[in-house]
Design brief:
The model has no long low-confidence stretch (mean pLDDT about 95). By secondary structure, the protein is α+β, with helices and mostly antiparallel strands.
Length: about 140
């Protein structure tokens, strides 16, 4: 049996008072560049997913999130070429600051029903109907 590299990534659906979700465009030079994703990132060694999101949301969007505001919601499990991605998705409705694209070319607030109009990585796509049902 071949060993598959498991990559753990935590992602967050930031939800505004109008029920829109923030998505961020991946930089052109990265893998899956140009696609839209939920903000977040890889877990550092010894880091819990909530700690990853607090760090990544600060680095990527310049916002401060408190751990009690991160609600575990769903997860994605997807095999890419060369690795398998496991990605818990959290929902967050409260944060400090205004999200701005510090590491992405663009961010957008989008209604879950309209996310089909934004090309997303294969792992993110199954999460859209769940968000649509929630919101």
């Amino acid at each position: 049996m071949t060993q598959v590299k498991l990559v753990l990534v935590a992602a967050c659906a930031l939800v505004d008072p109008d029920g829109r979700v923030l998505i961020a465009q991946r930089p052109a030079g990265k893998s899956l560049g140009g696609l839209w994703e939920f903000p977040g990132g890889k877990l550092e060694p010894g880091e819990r997913p909530e700690e990853t999101l607090i760090r990544e949301l600060r680095e990527e969007l310049g916002i401060e999130v408190k751990e009690p505001c991160l609600a575990p919601f769903a997860f994605a499990s997807h095999s890419y070429e060369g690795f398998h991605l496991l990605m818990p998705l959290y929902v967050c409705r409260r944060w400090e600051g205004t999200p701005r694209p510090l590491e992405h070319p663009a961010i957008k607030w989008v209604r879950p029903k309209d996310m089909v109009n934004y090309p997303m990585p294969p792992a993110d796509i199954p999460l859209i109907p769940m968000l649509r049902d929630l919101l």
